[in-house]
Every structure is written in C-alpha cells, then in structure tokens.
Amino acid sequence: MPMLADPSQRYKPYTPLQLENRQWPSKILSKPPIWLSTDLRDGNQALANPMTIEQKTIFFQTLVKCGFKEIEVAYPAASDTDFGFVRLLIGKNLIPDDVWVQVLTPAREDLIRRTIESVSGCKKAILHMYNATCPTFRQVVFRNSREETVELAIKHTKLVRQLTDECTAQFGTQFRYEYSPETFSQTEPDFAVQICDAVKTAWGRAGPAHDDRIIFNLPATVEIGPPNHYADLVEHFCSKISERENIFISLHPHNDRGTGIAAAELAQLAGADRVEGCLFGNGERTGNVDLVNLALNLYTQGIHPEVDFSDIDAIIDIVTKCNDIPIHPRHPYAGELVFTAFSGSHQDAIKKGFEAQAIRWKEAESIGEKKIWDIPYLPIDPADIGCSYEAVIRVNSQSGKGGIAYLVKQHLGLDMPRRMQIAFYLVIQAIADLEAREVTIEDITSTFRKAYHYGGGSYQGRLVLKSFRLMSEPSADPDTNEGEEERRMFDGSIYVDGTLRILRGEGNGPLSALLNALKTHLRIDYSIKSYSEHTLGEGQTAKAASYVELVPPGPRSTSESWWGVGVDSDIAGSGLRAVLSAVNSAIGDRALPELKLSVGFGTSSGQSDVASVIVNSLHLELPRRLQASFFEVVQRTAETSDGEMTYTDVVELFKETYKYGDPVGRYSIQTFKMDNVENGTRKAFSGVLEVEGKQIPISGEGNGPLSAFLSAIHSHVEKGTLSIREYSEHAIGEGTEVKAVSYVELVHEVEVERKTKKVSTWGIAADTDITGSGLMAVLAAAENLGLKFNA
Ligand SMILES: CC(=O)SCCNC(=O)CCNC(=O)[C@H](O)C(C)(C)COP(=O)(O)OP(=O)(O)OC[C@H]1O[C@@H](n2cnc3c(N)ncnc32)[C@H](O)[C@@H]1OP(=O)(O)O
Ligand SMILES: CC(C)C(=O)C(=O)O
Prior knowledge:
By secondary structure, the protein is of the alpha/beta class. It is 38% helix and 23% strand. Strand 19 (739-752) and strand 20 form a beta hairpin. Residues 42, 45, 75, 77-78, 106-108, 111, 130-132, 141-142, 182, 221 line the site of acetyl coenzyme *A (ACO).
C-alpha cells in the first residue's frame, strides 16, 4: 500500500501545551542528572532472548563499575530468571552499599507482593510501580474512568507502603518509592499532576531529604511529539505538582521519533532531576534514551557526568554480548566510524587542526592555561574514552592529500612538503579508484616505501648509498661572491645495480656534488627543483628527514618531476639519500653505464673506477688521497703492460703495494697499554714492539693514541722524524664479524746533504680493536717506507 496522499486523514498531531511564562528555553545544563540504568529491565524486556542470570550479573557489574548508583535490575514478577537474579544479587552480596537496586511492578496485588518478596533482605531498594494513565489506555486496556484510574494507583500505592514497611521491619531494607503514570506524554497534563498528587498522599512519607523523596517518573512511553513538547509537559508538571521539594522528577524518554536525546536534554532544562535509560539506547522499539550519549554530551560541554566511560570499547563488548544487538557504526560516541573521516576536506581540516592544537597547547601549557580541545569535526578527544587516533582518518576514493599526508606522518613520522603530498595522493587515489575499496594504512605505508624506495630491504632502488665523505675546498673562480666561495666534493660508495662503485663529484653544495657525480659516472642528469627538511624524533635519537624534487635539466618548462625522501642521523646524509630516492624513480629501468672491471685500467680509466675495484673486492673504502696515490701506482704499472690491467691485477697490485693482508710483517706490536694522563687530556702508550724477532719495550705520550704511539717509536727510528698526515677509519664486515680498518699516511722527514727530504706512504690495517687497527696501520706504513728501528 502506498503512503497516503493526505496523512492527516489517518494521523493526528500532538496537542501543543499553552504554557505561560515558559522558562526552559533560556536555561542551560550545568550538572548531571541522577542516572537510572534500566538496561536490565526495560532494555531486557525488549530483547528477543532476554538475558540469562549470568549475562545480567556481568551487565550489573559493568554498570556498577561505570558509577551508576541507581539500577533497575528486574521485573521480578515476570519470570523466575528475573526473580532469581534479584535474589542472587542480594544473596551473593553483589550490591555495593551506595547502590540502589530498583524493581518494577504493575499495580496488581499479586505481582506487587512477589516483587517486594524479591528484594527482601536488600539494603536499599526502589520499588517502582506503574499504571497507564492516558485516554487510550484507560479506555481500551483498562476500561477505566479517570477516577477509577486514580483509585487503582492509590490503592496499590497504599499496598506498596504497607508491604515495604513490613519488609523494612523484618529485614531492615530501606525503601524509596517511584511511581510512573505510564504514557505520561499522552496523558492530559492536569490529570498526570492529579494522579501523582494522589499517589504522593497515599504514599504518605515523602520528605525533602534525598532518600525520602518520592520519585515521579514521567515516561515518554511512546515519543509522540517533538522534544520541546515533552519539555513543556515536564515544566508544566514541575510547576503544578505540590511539594515539589519532596519529589525527584525522573524522565524516561523513548526514541520513536529519533529525538529521545533532545527530549531528555530539554526536559532536564524544564526541571527534571533524574533520567532513566539504557546504554547505547537499547529498549522497546527504537529504544530507551541512550545514557552514554547523554553523559558524553555533558562531558563535551565541560561537565563531568559522574559516570565513567573511559574504556568505551570494553563496555560496548559486554553490552553487545548481553543484548546480542550490534552497535551501529554511526552511533554517537560508540560507533566504529564516529571518529573516522574518509572525505578529503574533513581529513585536511583534522590534520591542520591537530597541528594547530599542538602549538596552542604548548603555549597554553607554558602560561598555565587550559588546553582546550578544538579539532574540526571531532567534538571529543577519542583518547578520553579509550579510543586511539588510529581510525580518525581512513582513506578511500573520497579522500584528499591532507588525510593521506596525516597518515604518513602518523605512521612514518614524515611530514611531506605540500607538492609531494599532491604527488603521493595521486598514487593512492589511483589505487583507491582502481580497486574501489578503502586503502588501508598498510597499503599506504608500503606504497609510500615502494614509491620512494624508502625503508631499505625490498624497497631499496637501483642506487643505494653505502657511505660518503663530503669535503670543502675554496672555489677556483675568483669572481665568486662572498658565501659562495666554497666548493663541496662528494666522494661516496654507492651500490649501482648491486655493484659497489666509487662516485665523485663536486658542486656548490652536497646535493649538487652528488648530482654531478651521478652525471659524470652514470650519465644520470637531473637538477633540484625543491628541497626541504625537518627533524624526525626527539633528543639523542633525533634524525633528519629530507625531501627533494628533481626535474630534467635545462629550462624548467616540464611538468614532470620526481620526489625523493631520505632519513639519516646526519642532515647531509638525509639530503643525499633523498636525491638518490628521487633518482631511483626518475631512471626507472633505463640501462646505466657499467663498471668495466676487467679492461681499460690504463690512462683512460679514472681514479674512482680503480677505487671501485678495491671496494668491491676488498671492501676497503679508500680515503681520497690514497685513491689518488694508488691510482698513480696503477697508471705506472699499466704503462708497462700496454695500458691494460685486469681486475685481479689491480687487486693484487694493491695488496702488494700496501702489504695489505700480509700476515708476516717485519714489525709487530706484542702487547700494549693506552692510559689516560693529565686528567684524560693526553694518552700514554707503553708496550713491546717486535722488530725482526727482537722485543723492544717502548713508551710515549701524545694528545691521542696515534701521537702517543708515534712518540714511542720515534726514538727507535734510525733517522729522521715521523708525522701523520692523514688518518681515517671505517667498519668492515657485519654483525659479530665486524672489524675496524684504519688508513694512515705516514710522513718521514730526513736531512740528506743538509736538505730535508720528505717521503710518505700509506699503511692499512684491520683489527677487532679500533686503537689496535690504527697502531698497526702506522707500523704498516713504516714498513712500507722501509724504516729501520733500533733496539
Ligand atoms: C511501558 C512498559 O514497559 S511497562 C512494563 C512492561 N513489561 C512487561 O510487561 C514485562 C513483564 N510482563 C510480564 O511478565 C507479564 O505481562 C505479567 C507477568 C506482568 C502479567 O502477565 P499476565 O497476567 O499474563 O497478563 P498480561 O501480560 O496479558 O497483562 C495484561 C493485563 O495486565 C493489566 N495491566 C497492564 N499493565 C498494568 C498495570 N500497570 N497495572 C495493573 N494492571 C496492568 C492489563 O490491563 C491486563 O489485564 P486483564 O488481563 O485484566 O485484561
Ligand atoms: C514502566 C514505564 C516507566 C515504562 O517503561 C515506559 O513507560 O516506557
């Protein structure tokens, strides 16, 4: 059947109340109401499968834990389960002393007796009786006149009074009385007041003290009008009922029009003291009013609700298990999606909101002011109810760059520059569109790693930085401006398609020096369009994150660009890594010039090619001056072999030249000790030097281990003086096999025919002890120089 063209033919509107001097619209809520949870009664009676005693027990304990002090636990006359549950709570002493349990009964003698029997022995009980009072119920259900309806309420209230007094006398149970003119919102307002006044008189003991007050519960048993109408009815009731000070006015809104929350809030403004409802709004039909929603609404106004939902997920878990009803994903405060934004503009605003709030809070903290929550689209801090920010931003095809950037920042700590956000957004958007699904955080982080070759392991690209050195030297150009006078030289070992190569370049900064090296050695030619950086983490573990945008060289008309990201404990290192990250994207699978390992080490080969051979074969990252020195050796040797040397020839030549890896040297250190002297500002070396089988005790002092050792051997050198021109070291090997390799360039000066003659050479040594490797490198150099030691 279609909807009616004229619904007024079937449905009549509510009758508005002509309330004079209406007060509630200009009031505000400033304190929480008394809460009554009726989950175990009104909520329970609405379930297809009412709760078992075990479920009711768990639910009851959860309510107690949340801080509810009044809990309607059963309709005891309804079933053995309900009756037995009340007996169990009392028998097992499960009711805390400050908690009132409430039980409901209709106005029928047999059921009232059974209900009061159920609470005998309980410390504090609220006996709740109801009878329907509105015209339809009077006429149809009870077939009673107004007078008969009032009489029914009076008669049974008197019975309740008599039986509860008897129970108090016998068991010491403290009782309060709650009366509900059921269907209050459909009852004539004056009749509701009349019947409650009569009930109060029949009860006969309402007083102003908290525990003596009679409770009049005014149910919107069925929500038949807008919330302002309910508020009007409540304000009318509050102003007309006698002895208002001896009464608690309670609300019991249902949610048939979906305005139960609004009705409860407005009716509190209208004068109510107490609210009955269920967690997450379970209950008959569309449910009772949701107490969690009401309480958290107060909380977000800065008013503590005096019930605690700090771990809302745990509460949801118990409630959904007991009710066997799921919570809607959009349910206020509790739904799975209520702290989630999928749409781009929401995500953007949330991201900016968090950033701005962090700054605001820092300032507020420094001047002792409140840290007020003010994040777009998030009325409450999810953390306050035990939720994480994990789900705040989720990505699908409706999302924008801001949300994706937020997630990258949250999960990888990387705060991408705006243009990079746009570039990465397009990558994610393509996935979301193509696969028509939500893009998970795992998808986003792994796509980011793949796109920018970030995170090592399987994500790394064709070019991987192993180590580098940056040097400065004054510019050769006399016309350079102040501040531009330095040239930067990059000298690094980079894996190129798995082969370690030594690349060198120079520029006016580290990044341009690397780009120059890539151009020179690998014909990779790009320029930097933008660069930015920020710190990642705090304190000692802080690192630098750099972002680079590369474009093809020449006039910048192209829209094509490649972004890269690099993270390193060293800021220059992070920039270099960012360049390589972008280069890896830019080159794709284009072929790169190979390192020719077996031919061409004649005059046409460069120093870095030779250095590449050494690093690949012996894992030695030669200092630049040693590279130059050895290159000269290679060139001289190549001349004698028609300009051609094989890879193996070069390696052997290196070993032979520097006696590297030669186990039987003429000189060795038998034992040594390095002490701190002069408050640790200087070092004192003492040990035994073995020279061609002879043991020579030596000792000396210096400002560091090497100078101390040098001074120790000095007096035993046959003639001349020794000094160290250059020293460097690096680790070699991995894990437990790691050693230190030291490189020492030793200079020997001798007077020959009144002229000072200077010769120098390199010594290289590896040892598990870094000081040991340095000393051995000095000896190796001495041996390579052909020095003689006296005993
Ligand atoms: C708005 C609310 O939520 S009110 C609470 C509703 N909750 C429940 O009903 C859950 C528990 N109920 C039950 O277990 C049963 O209904 C019982 C045990 C209370 C009564 O069961 P029964 O005796 O079989 O009667 P039934 O369920 O048909 O109830 C209707 C009878 O109670 C009367 N009645 C209904 N409400 C009331 C009341 N508040 N006061 C007095 N009598 C009432 C009806 O007029 C009707 O009487 P009739 O049999 O003389 O016509
Ligand atoms: C018994 C009353 C309070 C009731 O549950 C209702 O009217 O909804």
